[in-house]
Design goal:
It is a single chain. The chain is an alpha+beta fold. About 45% of the residues lie in helices and about 20% in strands. It has 8 helices and 11 strands. The longest helix has 27 residues.
């Protein structure tokens, strides 16, 4: 009887995991247009995994067989310079997919390292399976093209910022990245990413990042308390020169 109960519970647990996987995938724009047969195939070749804070998901030049959907937590994608200096390429947040572009790259290896910035839960999707689905799905081909185009546009904007803006302006633009025309003052931002990682992402030194926040705080534009930043005057930040 005890063995039966344990097996029954195991089946229930597996079903719950499968249901959560299906729900997370179906909500994502990239997989929303799959028909039921394609979606079932995708789920069969996907799995859930957990990565602890500080643990690497993959390393640069490692064979790439999977791309990922981040359900919870934060992931940083980074490269190391020949001297060993870390440069953060992108910060991945909840609900984002990443590494899918590797499917279309020659060499079949990851071009960056992926490290957890907190305890993370992800869905791992087999690249060859998804490529086969794309062969039969015009809608999803267009969706992934749109996603790649969006990221290319973001990369071009970043190049413009790096070449045309000084460190202080890049930091201000980062503070305003989620601010819309309807956002009211004061506006609170909560960071779960270490400041040193954010500084690397913005191509500024950690001490420059901290000093700039201090200057903006002294000017009455923001208020900093630990990992919480309050934007006190959004209009003034937008007009800052």
């Amino acid at each position: 009887m005890l063995l039966y109960q344990e097996l029954n519970q195991l089946v229930i647990d597996l079903y719950q995991v499968l249901s959560k996987t299906m729900e997370s995938l179906r909500k994502n724009l990239l997989f929303s247009t799959l028909d039921q047969q394609q979606f079932n195939t995708l789920v069969e070749h996907s799995s859930r995994l957990q990565v602890s804070d500080g643990e690497h998901l993959f390393h640069q030049k490692e064979a790439a067989n999977y791309f990922f959907l981040l359900e919870t937590g934060n992931i940083k994608l980074y490269r190391l310079s020949p001297s060993g200096e870390e440069k953060v390429i992108e910060l991945i947040h909840q609900g984002q997919t990443f590494a899918e572009a590797v499917m279309f790259m020659q060499g079949g290896t990851y071009p960056v390292n992926a490290q957890a910035l907190s305890d993370c839960q992800l869905i791992r999707i087999h690249m060859k399976t998804f490529l086969k689905i794309l062969e039969d799905s015009t809608d999803n081909c267009l969706k992934i093209l749109a996603l790649m185009s969006q990221r290319l546009h973001g990369a071009i904007q970043e190049i413009d910022q790096l070449s045309l803006q000084n460190a202080k302006m890049r930091i201000i633009q980062f503070l305003l990245r989620d601010v819309t025309a309807d956002t009211s003052t004061p506006h609170i931002l909560k960071w779960t990413t270490p400041k040193a990682t954010l500084a690397s992402r913005l191509s500024v030194r950690p001490e420059t990042f901290s000093r700039t926040l201090q200057q903006l705080s002294q000017s009455g534009l923001i208020q900093v308390k630990g990992s919480t930043i309050t934007l006190l005057d959004i209009d003034a930040l937008r007009q800052y020169r």
